[in-house]
Q: What sequence folds into this?
């Protein structure tokens, strides 16, 4: 639950980053860079602005690195679909909208495959959303799994790791050791695949 929100700008090496800061009941800071170059930051409710600024400053080299990766992706005359390089002359927005229905069908098929394997009896609704700060979510209120359209760029094994992650929340709502024990039971290679998402590594691994 978001307790309060704040807008703040951070500058690093001549680039100004707009940041949306959400105060939540959490123990640490979570920062991600969105596709438009802005920052999404979740912070503990009692953190001071001085501590927040100091911790964000330490993260700025990582932010710069990933901004450069995203800038390169936007300039390339190709995209990745399920880990395969696909030539294109469309802009990124057209690509994302054009593959929305295809991505929904694919994500739905993977949820339908893993749900019975993981012992989930009530079928989930599946949605595709234009999320930048995360690749998936599980809403217990609506019993819906939502996946980022961005996820459709990644290889099938990466997508499966996210599907398993979100389905595991059917049994454990938090990210405790018990939760990751479930994830690793069905996806032993989870942590390696997670790194591919963090690094924006869309290509399939060489066999």
A:
């Amino acid at each position: 639950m978001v307790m309060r929100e704040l807008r703040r700008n951070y500058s690093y090496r001549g680039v100004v980053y707009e940041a949306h800061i959400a105060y939540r009941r959490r123990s640490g800071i979570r920062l991600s860079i969105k596709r438009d170059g802005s920052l999404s930051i979740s912070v503990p409710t009692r953190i001071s602005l001085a501590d927040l600024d100091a911790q964000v400053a330490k993260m700025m080299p990582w932010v710069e690195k990933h901004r450069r990766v995203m800038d390169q992706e936007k300039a390339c005359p190709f995209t990745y679909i399920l880990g395969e390089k696909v030539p294109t002359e469309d802009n990124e927005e057209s690509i994302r909208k054009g593959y929305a229905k295809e991505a929904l069908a694919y994500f739905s098929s993977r949820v339908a495959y893993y749900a019975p394997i993981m012992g989930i009896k009530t079928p989930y609704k599946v949605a595709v959303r234009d999320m930048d700060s995360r690749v998936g979510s599980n809403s217990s209120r609506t019993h819906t799994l939502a996946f980022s359209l961005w996820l459709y760029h990644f290889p099938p094994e990466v997508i499966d790791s996210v599907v398993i992650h979100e389905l595991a929340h059917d049994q454990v709502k938090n990210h405790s050791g018990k939760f990751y024990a479930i994830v690793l039971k069905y996806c032993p290679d989870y942590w390696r695949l997670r790194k591919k998402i963090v690094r924006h590594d869309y290509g399939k691994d060489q066999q």
User: Anything to note?
Assistant: Helices lie at 49-75, 92-98, 100-117, 156-168, 177-186, 190-198. The mean pLDDT is 88.
